[in-house]
Specification:
Strands 1, 2, 3, 4, 5, 6, 7 and 8 form an eight-stranded mixed sheet that branches. This protein is mainly beta. The chain has strands at residues 4-18, 23-32, 39-43, 54-57, 61-66, 75-81, 89-98, 113-117. Helices cover 0% and strands 53% of the residues.
């Protein structure tokens, strides 16, 4: 069996939540074989996000939860797939945290909006 390089195949591209809520991101990779240490979440500035905020599933998915977000958490996050073959593959996701005092003008608009990119 010839190992395949790790690549990000799906990522949540944007999450919009109100201040004080939790934000959820998903990143799926393709590789052969797949192990949990192949996926790493970080901020755009390079700060690695703690493992206790991540959940790895056996099929190459990593779920990232940011608890009780504040406006300071807004920004770009990166999901990196790397298994030592070729260069790491990195895709980005954006978090927008709305002021908790913001009123929703459309009652049909959910306070949690997420988009998933394939």
């Amino acid at each position: 069996m010839v190992p395949d390089p790790a690549t990000v195949v799906n990522i949540t591209t944007m999450v919009v939540v109100a201040e004080g809520e939790n934000a959820y991101f998903e990143c799926s990779i393709s590789a052969n074989p797949i192990t949990p240490d192949m996926i790493r979440w970080s901020t755009k500035g390079g700060n690695v996000i703690l493992r206790e905020n991540q959940q790895f599933t056996e099929n190459g998915r990593s779920l990232l939860t940011l608890f009780n977000v504040t406006k300071q958490d807004s920004g770009t996050f990166e999901c990196e797939a790397y298994n030592g073959i070729l260069d790491p593959d990195v895709k980005t996701a954006k978090l927008v945290v709305l002021c908790k005092y913001l009123k929703y003008t459309n009652s049909h608009t959910a306070p949690y909006i997420s988009t998933f990119h394939r």
